[in-house]
Fold Glucosamine-6-phosphate deaminase.
Amino acid sequence: MNVIRVKDATEGGKKAFELIQEGLNDGAKVFGLATGSTPETLYKEMVDSDLDFTECTSVNLDEYVGLSGDNDQSYRYFMNKHLFNQKPFKATYVPNGKAEDLEAECAKYEEIIANNPIDIQILGIGENAHIGFNEPGTPFDAPTQVVQLTESTINANKRNFEKVEDVPTTAISMGIGSIMKGKKIILMAFGEAKAEAIANTINGPLTTDVPSSILKNHDDVTIIIDEAAACKL
């Protein structure tokens, strides 16, 4: 693991952008993307840049079950707002949270990943060390699947909704096994709330209780953290 410490999320976004730019220059064509507040500074750097992604494909990590892509709390809406509307890609894939057959949607998404091998995967991390929406206990070889969100994840996400009852309790998530197929992984974490998860990821044992600990087994991982997220290292 290559650990890069930065001052704050703004500097972290710039550092992640440098890695995206290097990858693009080296021929990367498929980007695995994450949602949430963590990668927003990266997406701003991408939008403000002169980089051209029109020959590139994006494959997103996850989507809430039950929300359509035009719902302003959906991850498709988030990606359109923060990146795709300003920086067009050749193709953009986000799981369909309104699919009638969720298992079929998961199988279809695995096929999309197989047909578009991810060159650079962007990750955030949950306070409980989830990556994607793969909560503690998820098998390390799990494919894309429907997941039940833990109470801590629901509480962490409720800030985006009017009331906690509105927060979806299930999601479609790229599995840990799928994430690990990415050729290069960039994990970003900012703030003291992520410090324990980061410490367990870097210094703790390999265990499904800490989903992100599997990253120890990947050949090319860069972790970008601010001083607050690094405070327990």
Summary: DSSP finds seven helices and ten strands in the chain.
